[in-house]
Amino acid sequence: MKKHLLLLLALLLFIVLLFVLNLLLGTVRIPMGSICRILLGSDGESEIWTNIIWSSRVPQALTALVAGAGLAVSGLQMQTVFRNPLAGPSVLGISNGASLGVACVVLLSGSLGGVALSRLGYMGDVAMSVAAIVGSLAVMGLILWVSTRVRGNVTLLIIGVMIGYLATAIIGVLKFFSAEEDIKAYVVWGLGSFARVSGDQMVLFVVLMAVLLPLSMLTVKSMNVYLLGDAYARNLGLDIRRARFMLIVCSGTLVAIVTAYCGPIMFIGLAVPHLARALFRSSDHRILMPATMLAGAALALLCNLIARMPGFEGALPVNSVTALVGAPVIASVLFRRRQSAE
What we know:
Elements: H1 2-24, H2 32-39, H3 47-82, H4 94-113, H5 122-147, H6 153-176, H7 180-190, H8 199-216, H9 220-226, H10 230-235, H11 240-262, H12 268-280, H13 285-307, H14 318-341
Helix pairs in contact: 1-3, 1-13, 2-3, 3-8, 3-11, 3-12, 3-13, 4-5, 4-6, 4-7, 4-11, 5-6, 5-11, 8-11, 12-13, 12-14, 13-14
């Protein structure tokens, strides 16, 4: 237990370091002393620097922090529900469902009504969030219904991938009948970015995630019992249907909100739970849940930092960076685990 606490503390310190680096590094060089004075509200600093810090770097860092934690927790919950190490928001079509919901707001509303709901300011943001939540929960509910009728995890995984392809096909049809401006807006949204959330949107996003992430900790006991199998869990008094429902609602809502604000961020929800298990060498969700949360936040901050490192024009798509950074790490972790098992 002491070793686990030290690892959690090390992860927390690493997050603090990455957060500071996100404020310090960028295309515009700002001295650390000036950043501290800007954050403390001191006068006399460059107005341009102040605007960069408060309007760009702080919102991006906070968004990456909570989005990474939310996606990682969602992936851990889905892998527990389906007892499938390949389960994740993107693999089982959950992100595709949220994307389909947002596509209806951005593309379908523009084709039918002439003006896309996404252009209506605050109401458009609310509409996108609600649509993403409905789309992701609909796919999660469908996956759960299918899981009660098939036994093999591989079959369930294939069905989830097919549902994702179906959602992608519907989005393609919507693109065909949509205006060029709406299509461009949706494609840019689909690249994934922590930079599009700012101002009141950032405050609302951080508040929502700050409420949902602690609530997800309430599912830890159910997740531990759930791992023992349905029969044993029932003997211990766990209501299987209720536990599944709570995990689906929590996981789907986290993915939906992150997707609505940041676009479909890939890889984090699938990879980070494996990374946490390898680092902490435990299957106890009392340890894995905070570990996964912190590891997801750290990976997202690292990817955001790489995406806008000095030398890049603008910022790279976050999805490209998450795959480039995370895939080799997870491949190494799984390879070492296989070697140790042998």
